[in-house]
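Problem statement: downstream parser choked on a complex file, so we are re-checking the raw output for the zinc ion run. The parser issue turned out to be on our end (a line-ending mismatch), but while we're here, posting the original submission so the record is complete.
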Amino acid sequence: MDVPDQKCGSLKEVAHLFHCDLFDTEIVHKIGQILLLGLSTACVDNTSGDLFKSPASVAVDIRKEMVDYLTQRSETFIAESLIEQGSPYMITSEHPVDIVSDLIDDFASSKQNLFSRVSGWLLSEKREDKIDDFVQEMEFRSFWLMERRLSIGQTLLKYLDPKNEFHCKMNFGSAEDLSCHTNACSFRPISCTNVGCRASFSSVHMEKHDSLCPFKILPCEQKCSESITRREMDRHCITVCPMRLVNCPFYHVGCQSSIPHTTTEQHCSEFLEPHLLCILRLIHKEAAMDDLKCRVEQLLKVVFPTHVCDLYCGCLSSRERNSKSLRDEGKALIELSSVDQLCEAQCVRSLTRIVKDLDAKIGPLDKYSPGTASEECNNTADVPQHVADKTMSKVQSTSESISTLEDLKEETSLQHHID
Ligand SMILES: [Zn+2]
Ligand SMILES: [Zn+2]
Ligand SMILES: [Zn+2]
Ligand SMILES: [Zn+2]
C-alpha cells in the first residue's frame, strides 16, 4: 500500500499522490494550547510598563511573527539537531510538544522589552496573572481560533516528528486506496465507547486510554464479586466492598488482626479461643495466663443439658408454654451456652456478656490451681457436676442468666412462675 517516498518521484508525480493527513489529535491539541499561551506571554512582556501599548495592540503583529518564527525554526530544527548532536538517536527523546514549547519560549524572550528585562517583572506574580488574563481575553474575543492553531500545530508536527510517531506518513496512488486506508489508519480519530466517557483520541491511543479511562468498568480490585468503574473503585474498596480490610471486632481488647469485612464471622469462629482469652483477661484482671487458658477450655466445654429447657418450660403456665416467644426463649437459653452461640457473638459486648454469664456458672477462677485445672480441662465434654448444679440454680434467676432476655417484657411474670 505504501508507495515509495515522494522525494524519489518527480514533482508531477508528487502532485498526484494522495496523502493521509491524519495525526495524533492529542499532540496537536496540546500544541494548539501552548501557542495561545506563548502569544499571550510575548505580548504581555513586550508591552509591560508601557503606558501607550497594551498586549492587545501588538497581538496581530506578534502572532504573525511568532507563526513565521516557529515554522522556520521547526523546518530546520531536526537538521540542526543532527549537526549539533551528531547522533540521530538524540532527537527521538525530544517530544514535539516540548520542542514547540522551547521554540515558543525562545520567541517570547526575544520580544521582552527593556522594562521586562530589568525590573524583576519576569519573576513577579502579577506577570502570571496578566498572561492568564490575556489568554482569556483572546479566547473570549475568538482572536485566534483553536481550529487555526490546530492547523499550525499540524504543520509544525510534520517537521518535528521525523519518525512519524505522531502523524501518518502514508501516500497512495488513488483516492480509493486512501479512503480505504483512512478507515483503518492508526491516527483516525475515535471516541471512547465506555458509557459516560466523552474522550476522543487517535485510534493508536485506544489501549492507553482504555487503561486509564475513568469510566472503564473493572472487576473489584479486592476481588469481591462486583464490577465498578475505575473512578468509583477507590471509594468502593474503602466504603462498601465486602472484601475491605477491617480491624477484628475484638481489636480494642487485644486481637490485632486485620481481616476482609466479609470474613468477620469466619474469623470470629476461628479465633474464638484467643478472643475468649481477651475477654477473660478483662474479667479477671489479676489472673495468671495459665488459669485463663484453662478457663477458656472450660468455657468451650460447657453445654447445658437439654432438660434444662424442659425444666424451664415446665415452670411456665400452659398459656405461656403455648406462647411461641417463650418457647423460643427457652431454646435461647440452651443455645446461649453452646460454642456456636459464643461464635455468633461478634462484638466485645455480646461476647463479654455471655462469657461473664458462663464464667459465673463455672465458679471462681482461683479454685483451679494449674494442676487441678489441667485435670478439669482434660475432662470430657461433660458438664462438671458443680457447673450443672449452678446451671440449674441459675435458671431460677432468669434476668441474670439469660442476658438476651434482658428487655423481656414478661420478665416479672416469668420470675413469678419460676419461683
Ligand atoms: Zn494514515
Ligand atoms: Zn474513556
Ligand atoms: Zn469489592
Ligand atoms: Zn480477632
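For whoever reads this later: The chain has a mean pLDDT of 78.
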